[in-house]
Amino acid sequence: MLNGIDAVDWHSVPGHPDWYEPARVADGLRALSGATNLPQAADAGSLLAGGGTVHGHSGAVFPAAAVAAPLLLDIAQHGHPAARDTALGLLDEALSCYPHAGYTRLAAPDGTAAALCCAIAHHVRGRTEFLVGLGGIGKSLLADASAHWRFEIFECIADGGDAAAFGILGGALPDGVHAAEMHHAGTITVLNEISVEYSDAGSRESCLRVFARHPGELPPHAVLFPAGCGNRLH
To answer: Rounded mean pLDDT of 120-128?
Structure first.
């Protein structure tokens, strides 16, 4: 875990200069990964929650929270139980906090620039089996992450004046009509109206109706996120 923490240049991760303190991320993660009791875990958590991944007093989340998410999940999976509970609490807090203007997204190698909450939720869902095995605390975090859904398009066909998009859904897209952001090749396009046609919870294979769009406007491997998450602002 220490190698992963030290591999990140936390000073190069953007954050509001009046609130984000990069040293708190590195020091807090190192301390949390080595914590062997509740006081040590609490001290490490205070570093991270006081300007590292979030600023708890003001309710702000920083891009560092999305970068740190897989490291916090590693600590939760392999660290002391006190460190696990602290790490999961920090992730849950990061999901509920809002980012400052100019620091709302995290660019990823796949060409997406998801809102911080969606980026964190994607990492959380990647540890579903582990989190479900924890019982209440893990299931609660997964439930909070589910609202920050992600849909990757595999194929589209025309359906009247709309398009039917087939792909994989992570999280839970609620019933009804919603707006979405489509991320592809470094660009973001707003889709004003989408809805779920069907969804298989076991395989995550789903079909979404995209109203008033042609299949050619919805390229394979484009990724959809909730439009509302992109508008979250501290």
So the answer is: 96
- β pairing state of 150-159 and 187-199: unpaired
Let me know the angle formed at the C-alpha of 189 by 141 and 93, rounded to the nearest 5 degrees: 20
Q: For 152-195, how does the pLDDT look when each residue is reduced to its tens digit (9 = 90+)?
A: 999 999 999 999 999 999 999 999 999 999 999 889 999 999 99
- What would the two tokens of residue 93 be? 């807090």
Residues in the chain: 234
Q: Mark whether 29 and 10 lie in a shared domain.
A: yes
Decide if 152 contacts 206 (C-beta within 8 A): no
Say yes or no: 142 and 161 in one domain.
Answer: no
Which H or E run contains 68?
helix 63-78
Determine the residue type at 124: V
Q: What is the strand order of the sheet 98-99 is part of?
A: 54-55, 60-61, 98-99
The whole-number average pLDDT for the span 143-148 is 96
On whether both 93 and 34 belong to a single domain, the answer is yes
- Angstrom distances, CA of residue 172 to CA of 119, 210, 224: 15, 17, 13
The number of folded domains in the chain is 2
Q: Angle at CA 72, nearest 5°, toward 112 and 82?
A: 160
* C-alpha to C-alpha distance for 214 and 24, rounded to whole angstroms: 48
Domain region containing 205 = 150-230
